[in-house]
Amino acid sequence: MTIIDEMKDDIKKVLYSQQQISERLEQLGEKLTADYAGKNPLVLCVLKGGSVFMADIVRSMKVQLQMDFMAVSSYSGTATTGEVRVVKDLESSIEGREILIVEDIVDTGLTLSYLIQQLSSRKPASINICALLLKKKTDPSEQRHVDVKYVGFECPDEFVVGYGLDYNEKYRNLPYIGVLKEEVYA
Question: How many domains, in total, are found in the chain?
């Protein structure tokens, strides 16, 4: 039994298979290619969860681009702390640049809202968000703090792992996205 097989036992259900992810990324890549043709965007990955998604999405974009990375922290375990910290900043200047933020999952968008506010002060030409997952809101009064222009999938308001998403640094290397059994993180 491999470690992937062992991790599989912790998954309640698979939401998106490796094949579904691959097909959706090809579609997103076509849209991004059309929207960023001739613009040389800076594709900004929010580490660590977005790294797997970014690697695949930039390969599907048929345009000249550059990449950079930021790390921000606002979670402890499965819950947000409400405080955002920049752990690793950009190495590139973004003034006058088209910025595409690549994120693994967007829930309320508070972290991204903070990040966009920080980046906007550096005078980029534009900032757009490409998220692998957008969590469905179960409470209609709950507000999303950012607009996500490019979305891979809408997912249920459950704790999901795989394809870069983790729980305590585990499950990132699953080739699919699944719902983690509650007893694993409860």
Answer: 1
